[in-house]
């Protein structure tokens, strides 16, 4: 008891000094930090110098030194250093005077801030991010609708569908807030505690201290936020008020993105204080119970030996930190965290000088949270770095082996596992000798070596010499005759002297040599003078049948022995692995099950990134992905991909498990009278019901106003159309002509475009006159319409090349391909023949008048004019989409990517809307998707090159391109989850994340850190950006020609470039 009291009474100032020292130096070894403070007598500057020199001399800590748990400070939680470090001091510089001055100034500032405000460095860090969040949110209110972070102006886009979970708006680098709050909100017991919290009675008076002034208003805002998440009609809600309360608790002007575990730690601390005040008021005279402590905090027993003296302490913990580096799964992390040092002395009777300790859980909280330490401080570079190693974790975790009540049996099993692993190591070494046999750098499986030897022994020589297979008598020129090269000097010396009959032999020899010199023949095989008995492939030179039989028998027997030994070793290794895996699988060690509730994921690097959460829904029995305003169904496979690590830059950073034997944690509440499950607004106390109803009424009013505005706009458009139609009708009455026709079917004057349509119409009339016996205008009109329809039908059915699209040439082709109703086709063809720009010969004039008369005779019930207008509007949309596409592709071909992007973006979006109504209503989606993607990649490349230049104007321009053009378009690539689009986004992100590990100027580092969270935001919310570019009016002929030119140019591009 005295030891425990001593632990709780450690001076808080000493812990502050330790935190400051840890932050400045990056050293996490508590014993080393305490030693530095003792050596320096509390002088932080001298302590930093001591640690700097010590780290330079001793790069690694002595593994035999360990600290006693009773020396840790009085924080109830296991402390976790801030991984999101700010203002890192580079301790690797050569100027020691500057270094000492910088350190002293930093520590003096930190001490003065603590003395003046009583606020720790950890709280200041949270303050900085909250300041940034609020500033970003306020700035977003001033942005125009053309920028990135604004909401959709259409409230229907922000309307909650049925009972889908409500998202949280990212109000500026607050994805960490959303991830944590959603994980806690989906713990229904925690949700009930927050919603039903009532402040203590004295809250109506002035708060007594700073904590009450801070925590109680925050608690109220958290209740409001939770109530909106329960009963709001909105798809997502704004947490700015809660963030504002957090911001007001601290005063700082710097900003950074917050670390999830640090925020969770502080959040639970504040909630605990708020509930503690209420508990003390409700249980006057009794020991109060704090529901936050009951829910999130547990206890463990630290059993250890320090320099031969045993100790045993009980400590409370909240979030339990685990190291990731060097471990493959969660159990390995836990085993390493529970055992520190030479544990043999802990349960040995001998008095040993060794030191070490074990942790045994005596009481586990219902909600068990693990912090995965994926950040480490790189002292050489002077900055934190993220650990991307893969770490597996189960969906069901059994904690029995770590419980104090199972201490003895766990020790026995650990000892057995240790022995098995030692034996396993020996077996693996023996197996390695079989699989990698030999003494040189190249080694092979022994069974294969014996097989090769057997194959060699049984090989037969093909011929006595490789030269025998070469036709030496055939020179390269094709002439016959054998010409041997003259022997070398050494060969001449070795040859016997020729028998000569006198000087007559000399001319013959001379002529032979001369002939050889005149006809040089290159014979590489014979000139190499290889041994005459060398075989074509490796084979024994001399081996008898008896020798071969004995050798083959030995090699075959040895190979079988080796293969059997290898199989036995592999089988033994597999059995040992299986034994280790099943060591804790008996029922007695599966009595403390914890089910995975939430996984908080971080994507990015140590100083920038994005957070989201995977949370299990027990009612739908599926995983949900909470990514700011986006809440979607997910799967265990997607969770594994994004959370285990080793894939992209994403990995789990915090794991939340819940006791599977305490279903109240996630069970819905029942009505005490009816026994029905409480859902929606029924969950809320009266004050929060009123709050949510007011907000829903505001949202309903916003929808009503929007609908009224759209109705007025539609009415104005109809009035404008009616006015235009009336004006056209009046003009028609005055001139004896005129029905208001679409611009693509009628031109006010006989331009090239209208001439083209006129020529088609007149050609149909002429053919009808030639083929039709009856010459009446009505008969000619009917015949001409049939001929024109037949011609357009052939176009609609023709299989054309990519540069020809008959839909652009005539609306009827578009209607036929999209199966427009017959009445719509007939009225449209009549409109074509009623064009007042037809030639003014008597036959055409009479046919035009008949067509106009037929149009006037069509009754409203025969042709639905709303449907007629809808089809013509669809064609106008098709032409507009084509104009956007052609313009964007033309600009892309000219490498004008900045201007091309908006045309390609809008053409893709409009085209997708068209294709959603029919296969032939738009253009090739893959083509548009490819060039949209390529345009973004080109812009990203250009912006990255500008950033790499380091020149201030170039850097500003490059980041401006990213913020104004590229980043707003990324959700468009993410929303449909297409593989190529996802890879493109990943390439763009990796390009910018690669700069985090490079040396650069501080101003560039600051800009990069500010920019990366926007780039790494995984939200698929379609945020409004630039308005569509203005398009000039193109005639049909112009549009067809430009379409044909650009498509022909694209067809000439190599396949890999398209």
TrEMBL record:
Protein family (similarity comment): Belongs to the peptidase C19 family.
Leader sequence residues: none
Location(s) in or outside the cell: Cytoplasm; Nucleus
GO cellular component, one term: nucleus
Name used for this protein in its record: Ubiquitin carboxyl-terminal hydrolase 25
Keyword tags: Coiled coil, Cytoplasm, Hydrolase, Isopeptide bond, Nucleus, Phosphoprotein, Protease, Repeat, Thiol protease, Ubl conjugation, Ubl conjugation pathway
EC number annotated for this UniProt entry: 3.4.19.12
Entry-linked InterPro entries: Papain-like_cys_pep_sf, Peptidase_C19, Peptidase_C19_UCH, UBA-like_sf, UBA_8, UIM_dom, USP, USP25/28_UIM
GO biological-process terms attached to the record: protein deubiquitination; proteolysis
Low complexity compositional bias, start-end: 500-517
Role description: The muscle-specific isoform (USP25m) may have a role in the regulation of muscular differentiation and function.
Transmembrane segments: none
Taxonomic lineage from the root: Eukaryota, Metazoa, Chordata, Craniata, Vertebrata
Segments of this protein annotated with the region Disordered: 467-539, 730-774
GO molecular-function terms, A-Z: cysteine-type deubiquitinase activity
Gene: usp25
Comp. bias regions, Basic and acidic residues: 753-774
Reaction(s) the record says it catalyses: Thiol-dependent hydrolysis of ester, thioester, amide, peptide and isopeptide bonds formed by the C-terminal Gly of ubiquitin (a 76-residue protein attached to proteins as an intracellular targeting signal)
Any Pfam family the entry gives: UBA_8
Provenance organism: Dicentrarchus labrax
Assembly with partners or alone: Homotetramer, inhibited form. Homodimer, active form. Interacts with ACTA1 (via its C-terminus); the interaction occurs for all isoforms but is strongest for isoform USP25m in muscle differentiating cells. Interacts (isoform USP25m only) with MYBPC1; the interaction prevents proteasomal degradation of MYBPC1. Interacts (isoform USP25m only) with FLNC (via filament repeats 17-18, 20-21 and 24). Interacts with GAPDH. Interacts with SUMO3; the interaction sumoylates efficiently USP25. Interacts with SUMO2; the interaction sumoylates efficiently USP25.
Domain USP, chain residue ranges per copy: 166-660
Primary localisation category: cytoplasm
Sections of the chain in a coiled coil: none
